[in-house]
Amino acid sequence: MDVGKHLMGEVTVITMDGTLDSATAPKVQQDLEALFPDEGLVVLDMSRTTYMSSAGLRVLLLIYRRAQGSAARLALTGLPSDVRAVMDATGFLGFFTVVESVEEALAV
User: Fold this and answer.
1) Where is the STAS domain (predicted)?
2) What's the mean pLDDT in 4-16?
């Protein structure tokens, strides 16, 4: 999985492209920790996340906790239907602000 970061004004957009599973989760977690700012709005764009296992849910939980322990606000966007279904079935959607686009996150 490739993880990237760019800024839209003062908003940090982190993109995730590929599969988030037990094989990729440790590196993705490291990448997210390195790219995650201590404050401001962070939008995690998952529109190119093709698959997410329980290891991926753990990564999301850890980044959620990181945001809770800082002055950063976290929103998710672009959840593919199968990823959304996994997050909904496990109750993970309740932890996150979920928006349809980066632009919508700017208004949150």
Assistant:
1) 11-108
2) 94
Q: How many domains does the chain have?
A: 1
Q: Could you please report the per-residue DSSP string of 3-62? A: EEEEEETTEEEEEEEEEESTTTHHHHHHHHHHH--SEEEEEEEEEEEEEE-HHHHHHHHH
Residue 29 tokens read as 């977690």
- Domain encompassing residue 7: 2-106
- Rounded to the nearest 5°, which phi and psi values hold at 52? -140, 125
- Give tens-digit pLDDT for 31-78: 999 999 999 999 999 999 999 999 999 999 999 999 999 999 999 999
Q: What is the CATH number of the domain that holds 50?
A: 3.30.750.24
Whole-angstrom distance, CA of residue 101 vs CA of residue 108? 11
